[in-house]
Amino acid sequence: MAEVGARYRKKRLDRGIKARADTIFAIASYREILYLLLPRALPVILLLVLPLLLRGYWGKVLVYSCIVGLLALSWDFLASCGLFSLGQSLFFGIGAYVAGTLSYYFHWSPVLTLPIAFLGGGLISAVLLSPVLRLRGVYFAMVTLMMPLLFMKMIETTGLLGGSHGLSALVPFPNEWVARYLAVGAFILCLFTFRRIINEDYGLVLKAIRDDDRAVMSAAINIYWRKTQALFVAGAVGAFAGAFMTHHYQFVGVTVFALDYSILPLAASALGGPGTFAGPALGSMILIPLSEALRALGGLRIALYCIILILSVIALPEGIFHYIERKYHQFERSVRIG
Amino acid sequence: MEGESLLKVEDLSKHFGGVQAVFKVSFNLGRGEFLGIIGPNGSGKTTLVNLITGFVKPDSGRVIYRGENIAGKKPYTIAGLGISRTFQMVRLFYNLPAYKNLIIPLSSSRVKKLRGGKYGERDDVAVDLLDDMGFERDSLVPYKLAGSLPHGYLKRLDLARAMALRPDLLILDELFSGMAMSEVASTLPLIEKFHEEGLTIIMIEHRLKELFRVVDRVMVLNFGEKIADGSPQEVMSTEAVQKAYLGIEVEIG
């Protein structure tokens, strides 16, 4: 009688803590506490330690990653209520110019200009885009793509706000440490605040608008007002990023409305996995350092960069974060068949 | 007709391209009344509901709700005034647990005003509401994903969503379509109870036997026009209704 060799198959089990609601956990051991806490604490600790370790150039890369991370978070927040933006540079540029103007003409310090750019940028973005909130999908995306170009050309041709030369010699941050920790702190704060908001009733309504706006309307909720609020929040975060960079470089020019600031956050979100905020945050932490590391390759850099991006989207269409999250919550083991 | 008028529709018309979906429909609905609307497929029943609830803007005519013309107002404004509806094709959030579906109406300013609900209590209110609708609390059905529930439950979830707004006027658009007999039998008493508690209801339904059991009055639409309005017995003995419904002339001996 021929013996059939033992065959194994892979068996997947969902780990996880049984809970009736996603806000209440029944924790039984330190292991479980660690299981819950580690994925949240580890990135925070890492981000807080990194500014101390990195020197010079790579310190700047970290700051830049956080700034693009803020833009990506802002993108994901808009996407969570069904607004697909191709114009993150609009928010970035508005914030940059608000801070730049106040700093150049009135010599105000970042202590004042950053909060003003944050609130004012959110307000301007919400007012500018609220008339097109009724547009869906690609039409909204097209308008957001055009808006930054409009601003760029307007400043260039009218010569207002420094025209094509920009505004220079702006008030800097007191020192490099303030800048680094401000960028990292804002990034962490934004990430955890957004994750909190989206899991509460307020975020539930935002996501419901994305899924079925008519059902939300029939629940007596003014969807346009909610979308305007989402625009304000996303605009404020994007504007803060812009204002930060203005003071960091001590310069603001029309390039703040450039396509880069629209595409990078989008690419970071696609890479990391949209819809969770952690995905776009992770995406920008990978994408920006990667793009800097490839800088040594000269002209081939962009080509290689694109190839990596395309491959990652094909291999992991759900995004890196969703993949990691799934694996983290699963056991895999081999089980004998028969 | 009991009490004062809650809803008064005057010469309401709407056409889509060359199709006259609703033509000069007028009717009056008293507070606490239970009106059934019937008619063959394509007779304009759902369009009429969409016109009243603001999902479709009328070409002409008025919708007077509590003395105010609401024709052409936004759906969320109208819902906020207390007109709540269910959808013929249920519109739910399938990737949310059933009870979370009710969080959306429960976080509207209308409910906040009426309930004074504090944050965090909404989940309990939602589960209570579902319990009333026959989602057994202890069976954990309210906590299951809406997408995993059978059709009958989805229809009742849609009803619960409409009721979560604490409406003054409830419009049911073919609530029973696709429901099993047993599900209809368990849902009908719920609706009767709402009515007894004083809720004004408009019910569009193809299941005439069940409808006639609960309504005070029936209105019949055909090709967008009102062809009859009265008690179920009166209406069904009208020649025009028999013609429209059966397609043949019936000799009543």
Question: What do these coordinates show?
Answer:
- The complex is a heterodimer of chains A (338) and B (253).
- Chain A has 338 residues and is mainly alpha-helical.
- Chain A has a domain at 40-259.
- Chain A is 68% helix and 6% strand.
- A two-stranded antiparallel sheet of chain A has the order 1-4. In chain A, strands 2-3 form a two-stranded antiparallel ribbon.
- In chain A, α1 packs antiparallel against α6, α2 crosses α10 (260-272) and α3 (88-106) crosses α4 (110-129).
- Chain A starts with 6 loop residues before the first strand and ends with a strand.
- In chain A, 42% of the residues are buried.
- Chain B is α/β, with parallel strands linked by helices and 253 residues long.
- Chain B contains ten helices and ten strands.
- In chain B, β4 and β5 (68-69) form a beta hairpin.
- The radius of gyration of chain B is 18 Å and the shape is globular.
- The model of chain B has no long low-confidence stretch (mean pLDDT 88).
- Chain B folds into two domains: 1-82 and 167-253, Rossmann fold (3-Layer(aba) Sandwich); 94-166, no CATH class.
- In chain B, the strands form two sheets. In chain B, strands 6-7-8-3-9-10 form a six-stranded mixed sheet, with helices on both faces. A four-stranded antiparallel sheet of chain B has the order 2-1-4-5, covered by helices on one side.
- In chain B, 34% of the residues lie in helices and 25% in strands.
- The chains are: A mainly alpha (338), B alpha/beta (253).
